[in-house]
Amino acid sequence: MCTTVENCTQVTRFVLLGLTEQEGLKGTLFVLFLFIYSVTLTGNLGMITLIHTDPQLHTPMYFFLSVLSFTDSSFSTVNTPKLLENFLASSQSISFAACVVQMALMSLHGTVECLLLAIMAYDRLTAICHPLLYHTFMSQRSCIQLVAATYTASVANSALLTGSIFKLPYCGPNIINHYFCDIPPVLRLACADTAEVEAIIFISSALIILFTVTIILASYAYILVTVCRMRSLAAQSKALSTCASHLAIICLFYGSVTFMYAQPSSPSSMDQNKFVSVFYTVVIPMLNPLIYSLRNKDVKIALKRRCLSKLPS
């Protein structure tokens, strides 16, 4: 085992084992994932277009939703095209530099997603619990600053994680048991002690998850107390309906991530993790715009208005 980059031959390419090694399934999976990816891009880009062209949706909540849609479409684009390519190509390899970029972008968008969900919970807290001060707290400037801070923190976190992982020497083997350059399978290939890097990853991930989950839980606890104090059932229903879509997305995202990372690491868990990864990197980005469009009255009205405006008079 080499301990420095200088005394070993550095790996220049990694081989991705992919989602499955069964040749008979690859054609079917290619069609399935191509469909999912198409729906993801259509849904998220359509949501962004609808929000930015409909004046009724020019509110902080929908501004954050448009940023979430951009993040979801980008998140999916980082790994799905490579997954589709690997279903068709005989050699499922990726260059060292491309692996670094892919991991950096996956870390970036994953962090952005966590922070955005927390910001959206705070937005609902302000709207329901402090309606008279809502536009003061959530002004256009404040919303832009929150998104800018989110991306700044996410870039810093991604740079820290990716830099720590790829400063280690990689001299073989070069086979990644995954369909993209995820942190755990790549770290297993390092030709050096990874304890320090694993500690950095654990602390960074724990801080982000604890920070965002605390904000989300505290926000919804405060919202629940406020809703229970409302005397009107109609007001209670309206308040809770604005939170339903956001809560559904939170449950899907954190549920799949927790399921994947909370279980003990084992050779069999790596194969299981690949399929769980599909859910939060490919399926959830497709579901988010569908959840908001199907469960949100304002979005459905705006979509109907948009469709009617396209009809010939």
UniProtKB/TrEMBL annotation:
It is found in: Cell membrane. It is a multi-pass membrane protein. GO terms for cellular component: plasma membrane. It comes from the Eukaryota. Residues 43-292 form the G-protein coupled receptors family 1 profile domain. PROSITE patterns: G_PROTEIN_RECEP_F1_2 (PS50262). CDD domains: 7tmA_OR5-like. The keyword Membrane applies. The chain crosses the membrane at residues 29-50, 93-122, 143-166, 199-227, 239-263, 275-294. The keyword Cell membrane applies. GO terms for molecular function: G protein-coupled receptor activity; olfactory receptor activity. Keywords: Cell membrane, G-protein coupled receptor, Glycoprotein, Membrane, Receptor, Transducer, Transmembrane, Transmembrane helix. Belongs to the G-protein coupled receptor 1 family. Putative odorant or sperm cell receptor. This is Olfactory receptor 1052. It comes from Pteropus alecto. The lineage of its organism: Eukaryota, Metazoa, Chordata, Craniata, Vertebrata.
